[in-house]
């Protein structure tokens, strides 16, 4: 991991970053951020964002939130939506995810599938359309997932009161 910032051949860096996506342990992700910011290679940026979204990086939650609002990072921000939900949590991620929703509706929906509550549910219901395709499919799935989670939460509350 510590050597990744010293590799200046993007295909090799990308291969190493993709291998890191399989790690189960927490790790300091600041070297990945350094490479993300340095490179202009959109594929490498996307791979880094994907790795951040599916692993246990530490030390980068604030950076992820800021990066989401930087349009120059392009499509890599798709996966940063998911990373933000996982790393920064609902309270911090939701305001930014709402701001960029129109740009990345499917990926914001994926992020909210993990952390969404009533507020995100209502927002998504106001945005879903009859169109086919990735964004609306993900929005519909997320609506169903949040509704199911909220229903279970309500049932647990009710059971708790009864005991």
Question: Any overview of this molecule?
Answer:
Helices cover 71% and strands 4% of the residues. It is mainly alpha-helical. It has a domain at 89-163. Strands 1-2 form a two-stranded parallel ribbon. Helix 1 packs parallel to helix 3, helix 2 packs antiparallel against helix 3 (42-54) and helix 7 runs antiparallel to helix 8 (134-162). The longest helix is centred in the last third of the chain and has 29 residues, at 134-162. It is globular, with a radius of gyration of 17 Å. The mean pLDDT is 95.
Structural class: mainly alpha
Give the % helix. Answer: over 70%
Sequence of secondary-structure elements = HEHHEHHHHH
**Main beta-sheet annotation:** 2 strands, parallel
What's the total helix number?
A: 8
Total beta strands: 2
Instruction: Measure the end-to-end span.
Output: 51 Å
What does the radius of gyration come to? 17 Å
SSE blueprint and pairings:
Blueprint: H1 10-20, E1 26-28, H2 30-38, H3 42-54, E2 56-58, H4 61-68, H5 77-100, H6 105-115, H7 118-127, H8 134-162
Parallel strand pairs: 1-2
Helix pairs in contact: 1-3, 2-3, 3-5, 4-5, 5-6, 6-8, 7-8
Structure at a glance:
With 163 residues, the protein is mostly helical. The chain has 8 helices and 2 strands, in the order αβααβααααα. It has a domain at 89-163.
């Amino acid at each position: 991991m510590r050597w990744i910032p010293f590799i200046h051949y993007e295909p090799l860096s990308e291969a190493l970053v993709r291998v890191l996506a399989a790690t189960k342990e927490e790790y300091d992700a600041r070297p990945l951020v350094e490479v993300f910011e340095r490179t202009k290679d959109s594929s490498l940026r996307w791979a880094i964002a994907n790795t951040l979204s599916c692993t246990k990086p530490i030390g980068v939650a604030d950076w992820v939130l800021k990066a989401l609002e930087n349009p120059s990072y392009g499509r890599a921000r798709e996966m940063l939506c998911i990373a933000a939900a996982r790393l920064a949590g609902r309270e911090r991620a939701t305001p930014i995810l709402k701001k960029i929703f129109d740009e990345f509706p499917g990926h914001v929906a994926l992020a909210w599938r993990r952390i969404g509550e009533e507020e995100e549910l209502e927002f998504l219901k106001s945005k879903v359309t009859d169109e086919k395709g990735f964004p609306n499919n993900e929005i519909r799935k997320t609506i169903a997932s949040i509704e199911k989670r909220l229903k279970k939460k309500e049932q647990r509350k009710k059971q708790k009161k009864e005991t």
